[in-house]
Amino acid sequence: MEKPPSFGDQESRRKAREQAARLKKLQEQEKQQKVEFRKRMEKEVSDFIQDSGQIKKKFQPMNKIERSILHDVVEVAGLTSFSFGEDDECRYVMIFKKEFAPSDEELDSYRRGEEWDPQKAEEKRKLKELAQRQEEEVAQQGPVVVSPASDYKDKYSHLIGKGAAKDAAHMLQANKTYGCGEARVRVGGGG
Residue spans with biased composition (Basic and acidic residues) (predicted)? Predict the structure, then answer.
């Protein structure tokens, strides 16, 4: 059995067409905004390239799509770009001229949210080199022999006992099978 044509069907089709038209208009607006954003970024990147005094440029935080567009513009221009920041709302892009590409230390600094200071980095690098040289010197000297100020066997001789048991305790050697532990002698009786 067929349904008779109803007014509601025509009304719902009209609303669907209007909604599709609004959606298409929004998509066109978004597309136009992306094109305008790309042009603006191309101009900023071009100005950056022309300015010989700048070696890097930090952009304001932007959304994922805008960052993607900027990375593409930078790649086409032959520059280097990186995104920094934890949250999506505060992620930003920094661009660098190829001849002034950042070092790993500089990138790590930006990833931690710190400003890059070449002088501090040089000081840290020198300290690392000094520490490494000191470690190498210590390693070349060989193992360090540690000798305690007193013999623990004498300290606890009152527990070990007197006579032959005491002499036996003083002659014990480290049990090499189990590492550096000492063999234990039980003197006396009871539990």
Answer: 10-35, 108-124
